Amino acid sequence: MNLQNIQAALRDSGQECWLFYDHHHRDPIAYRVLGLSPTMMVTRRWFYLVPAQGEPVKLVHRIESHHLDSLPGSKMEYSAWQELWQNLEIMLKPYHSVVMQYSPNNQIPYISLVDGGMLELVRSFGKEIVSSANLVALFEATLSQAQIASHFKARDAVDKITAAFFQEVGKRARNGGTHEFEMQQWIMEAFGREGLDTCDPPNVSVNEHSGDPHYEPTSATSAKIKQGDFVLLDIWAKCKQPEDSVYYDITWTGSVGAPSDKHREVFEIVRGARDAGINTVKAAFEAGRKISGWEVDQATREFIDSKGWGKYFIHRTGHSITSDIHGNGANLDNLETKDDREILPNTCFSVEPGIYLPEFGVRSEVNMMIRNGKGEVTGRIQNELVLI
Question: For residue 198, what pLDDT is reported?
Fold first, then answer.
């Protein structure tokens, strides 16, 4: 834990204090931000209060009094619940508002980890509870220069594999055909050669399977890829080293042979929505204006709505990307949630609108990085369907 950085972030955001609280590892964010072991046995509630100024305060149960000894600050202890309440009220007395892992109306469920009863208790002391969402994004989603470099290294390898994938599909389709699962395994072998790692295998889907955003080919369900078919590839990976390397995550689509007019029409609409999202991010940073994730989703969604295809765009526009494929920064979302987290400097995220029909689906996914005061697409941009 870097206490100075946490306190500086609290002051910069105008907040008085950040109260971390856990019981039985309900809040993994607290362990990561504070640098606590995720395997530590926790059978009793603990609290750690970081003020914007001054010394932190710990509150721990007497039978687990050592749990926060690795952290700086004074210590208070409790055994009885009445003593817990009394000491917690004393800890919070100097402050009007308290930052916690909380999201109003559970709008951002990745942050809303404090249980309702604890929120009631803190409010009973006359305290206002403020969401830690933007602070968590600052500490969990902003990337170091080494992490940024690892993203671009993964990009180079994944872009090369993607181009080779479509060539391989075309070659096999003209020589008897291939299957989704076979091509997925072909990619996994390529990952091994390129020193890449992934949390899950890529999504290779053909025709109606591409209309399922989370389709997963298996040896039992795999469909054949042949002449005339529509193919979607969703591919994500990161470098095996270092451990905190950052994912690169893209989606491309193509047709084995000439695409149909409907394939082209839907792709052009999705491409336009993607570009609307990209340009919304770029324009905000060029103007020096803060922008939240939901605003980008709204821009892509309005574009697709204007073309009459809105009901077929059934997921958020994008997600935070870190050393986890779905990081804890701002998501581009005004559908599943209203993500009002700010898009921060040195963060990475996907822009991936899609239209999903019974017979096929189109998604066009790029990654964006915010650095040097600008928003940039980090890899190749698909501007027309791949002719496989």
Answer: 96
